[in-house]
Structures are given as structure tokens and as C-alpha cells.
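The instructor's notes for this session suggest beginning with a concrete chain rather than abstract definitions. Hand out the sequence below and ask the class to guess, before any prediction is shown, which regions might be ordered.
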Amino acid sequence: MRVAPSKRRRRLEENRDEENKLRMDMIHTESHFNFVKMHLLSHFSNHIRQCGNIPMYSTEFGELAHKEQIKDGWRRSNKNDDEGQILHSYGRQHAIRMRPLNLNSLRRRRANLGDDVLGYLDKTTSTVSTPAPRGRILKGRRDNVSDVLDFCKVLGISLDRICLELIRYSRHNLPTEHRLPEEPAILQLLPVELLTQLEIPVLAFQESDVYDIHRARCTGTHRFRNQESPNDWVWVHAAREEMYGALRGCLPAKLVALFKIKDCSQDTVRRLAGVQMLSPVNSGQPSDIHSLVTVQLGEDAREFTLVDIGTILALAHLIPEGDRRWLVNSRINLRTFNEIY
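After discussion, reveal the predicted structure:
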């Protein structure tokens, strides 16, 4: 039986509508948008308040690359067969820039380079200005702490634990002649200044003299901006670069305290941070499912570890996974994506 063209078209449209309806029902019932890319959007507002704009989603890098790779090459061409000339120009510039890097790498490996090459390297590297390192700044002094005893009361940590951590820090990080006293009776009376904020200068991605300022806050029981008290996550340089897999010697930690302690016998002041360190799961290898590293708070983890504030590198961003575990968010910005992973 022959079907009229109009009836055939109507059947095709009905079948198409039914397929679209089934497809949309499947999307709504099975996806739930429960995947990392969508979940990260809920964390961007806090990151912007702490660190400013999110460079990973900025168009600035693409615009600069378009100017350097395409526009500059087009202006230098004779406008005939410009595609080939643009590619040749950019490739030549890239090769010229790579040559000093390769030669410097060979020199560090003690390769046999000629005197003319070494002189060229010395001349080119001496013209590159190294930015002056910026120091970390502690802010937000609290008036209810004057010595180690007050420090223990405010944090709710036993005096024995504080003394043990101060002694451990002194033995592992200070030369013998500059160590803190180890008698508890003297330690508990050392002057202490408790603070609530640490400003960490972090070199901007692909920049040599532009810094972003990460403001790590640790207010204890004090509320911040009428919200719950923050104890921010930070990156701590904890070991050699080959340790902890993709984390490359760094570990995330929660800030517990920021303070200055003065050794009156030597008239020296130490700027320290109390942190609770996390440890990587699976030796710091990214998961095959979501490509993120999982960290955890072990049952035997110390509640309070002292580190120098110079070992705190930047703010960290962790995604709760439950059961004292977190996912390390490597996609919050390009700097973290390139340096931590």
C-alpha cells in the first residue's frame, strides 16, 4: 500500500519528536550533572574573593597569543602567501628563544661547550633582571594573647603538645646556636603575637615580575564578615620535588594558627604557622576516573604541626569527598594546573 508523502513526513516528524523526548528524559534522569566540571562552578566565588580573577578562564592569554603568533607575523609578511610566511616567522622566533634555554640546560649538565658559547650565555643571562623576592606579610593582630600559655588557651591545644612542636621545629630547622630553649618552664613564658591573616605573593602565570596576592586567613573561633570562621587550606613545601607523585613535594594543609614567637635570650623573632597536614592517597597519583589527586587526614595525623611561613606557597582548593578525604582541585587556575601537576 502506497503512503502519501504528507503522511510519510508526518510519521517521520512524530518519530523524531519521540526520539528527542526519550533522549531528554534520559539526560534528566541519569546525568544529574554530577561531574567535576559542573561541580567546580560552585567553588569559584570563594576563590575570586580570596585570590582575585580566575586566569584559567581569562581570554587575555588567547588574545596575546593571537597577536604574537598571527598578527605580528602577518605584518612582517609581504601579504602574498602569508600563511606560509607567518608559520615560518613564528617557527624561527620559537627556535631562537629555545636555543639559549637548551644551551643553559647543557651547561647545567656540565656539557663541553666552547668559550664563545659560554660567553654568549653569560652576556644574555646578565641582561635578564631577576625580580626582587617579595616577603610574606602577617596581619590582623589579636590582643588576647601575650605568651605561649595564652596561645594554648586560645587554640584549645595542650601546653605539652605546643612545647613538643616548638622543640621539634627548633631541632629540625634552626642551627644549634639559635635554637629555642627546651625547658617547658621557659618556653611557656616566651612572648607570642597571634595573627589572623597571611599575605602570600605568588608569581602570576607566565610572568616574571607580576605577583598575585593570596590572603590566607586563620581566625580561630572569630567570625569573618559575619560568616563562619575560616581556616584556609594552603600549599606547604614539605619534601623534595620527587616526593608525593603529582603533588611534587607539596602537601595541602589546614591553617590552625599564625603567630610570631620571640626568643628573649637571643632577641630573635620567628614567624611560624600551625597547620594540620594531609597525606596523599595512592602515593599522589591522579585517579583514572577524574584525573584528580585524593588526599586524606590519617588517623595518626598530628593535630598541630609547626612550619615556617616561608614554606607556605599559596592557597589550596580542596573538594570534600567524605570520610576525611578531599580531592585536590588542579583546575582552579593555570598556575596550579602547571606547577602542582
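Then share the key points. Residues 213 and 285 are 29 Å apart (CA to CA). The longest strand covers residues 250-263.
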